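Predict the 3D structure for this chain.
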Amino acid sequence: MLNYASKDVGNMTEAVVRILAGDIEVQITGTTNHVEERIAELQEEGVWSSVLDRLRMAREAAVEAAAKTIGSAELPERGSAFRHLVTGAGFERKPDMVLAAIHYLRDVEGVHDSPPRVVARLFEDAGLEAPGNLSLYLNRLRERGLLEIPEIGGGKNRYVVLTPAGRRHLDERTM
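Done. Predicted structure below.
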């Protein structure tokens, strides 16, 4: 759990950061400068890394549990879940939708072999118009550094994964 708040007090901004990760709790209150200094100290002490590791593990466990649930239940809502992701994030451009589809297939459903026909089927299940030439979209997104093909994939675009830049791109679009 992460809480962050700030308010103006006089001519200064008071900030409060509270992080609860398992049995580790970090709460920092004070001016923005004080909070930033305290976070830097925690980083030096290694506490910050421990908190981030726990948050990362909790997120991965939640994604894994969701993927298992979806995979085992053979949910007919597959398309509606993807449609909700796309519309909820406000994705209107096809490249953003393709990135979201790759993210959904790999990180939610756990599908690693996703040739263009599988991606097109996801669009179809969601009632969305699939891009006409998915291979072209995948190659252009790869050229922009938003997707990559791991060595294991043998250079085939059916094994594409989002790069950190691709994840940031999606995150920025949803804010």
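The first helix runs from residue 32 to 45.
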